[in-house]
Specification:
mainly alpha; Tetracycline Repressor, domain 2; 2 domains; 10 helices
Length: about 200
């Protein structure tokens, strides 16, 4: 039985559950969803399979929890980043900047692996719901800016974010990718008349 490194049983159980989730995420990202089993997760976390069943009664339960956790942690970081932004354009920029930072840390890898995992339909639906909830602050900011066809514009700009994330995850410098991406986002979301005015003012 693992040694209790906590002041209370409840704290110990929380630590064990966290260790199991981290082990499950590690297996998911590196070996795929089919490898996420109670036995494999227990072995990776250093716990007996019987101990794993105290927290998760199946592979499906493990994957469902990973689905929730993958977005919960990113959402908390995004919420903190957006809290310091003023105005819709700054909200978009903060969302992109923090998303890229999280991408550089590998925070998006569990969600990406889940999307390609062929999950149960209910889990796939929950994954889509969580994704829509996560991007809603960005989409709301685009709507607030009053750009033409805001839904399409948000989709197109989100494509830039996905490309930038791929670049960062493949080793491109985070600062350089962030700077270039935000410059392009500002050009896309700044009204043409203000851009023209700024150009005239510079002459």
């Amino acid at each position: 039985m693992p040694k209790i490194n906590a002041s209370t049983v409840a704290e110990h159980r929380a630590q064990q559950r966290e260790a199991l989730i981290e082990a499950a995420v590690d297996i998911l990202v590196n070996e795929g969803a089919t490898a996420v089993t109670p036995a494999a997760v227990g072995a990776r976390a250093g716990l007996a399979r019987s101990s794993v069943y105290q927290y998760f009664d199946s592979s499906a339960a493990l994957l469902a929890t990973i689905t929730e956790e993958a977005f919960l942690r990113s959402n908390e970081a995004l919420t903190r980043a957006l809290a310091t932004a003023n105005g819709p354009l700054e909200h978009v920029e903060a969302f992109f900047r923090e998303s890229l930072r999280l991408g550089a840390e590998g925070a998006h890898r569990p969600a990406a692996a889940l999307m390609d995992a062929g999950l149960h339909p209910a889990c796939q639906q929950r994954l889509r719901e969580l994704h829509l909830e996560q991007v809603e602050p960005f989409r709301a900011a685009v709507r607030e800016l009053g750009v033409p066809e805001p839904a399409l514009t948000a989709d197109l700009i989100a494509g830039m974010l996905h490309t930038a994330l791929a670049a960062v995850e493949h080793g491109a410098p985070l600062d350089a990718v962030t700077t270039r991406t935000l410059a392009l986002v500002r050009r896309c979301l700044t009204p043409a008349d203000s851009t023209a005015h700024g150009s005239r003012a510079g002459h």
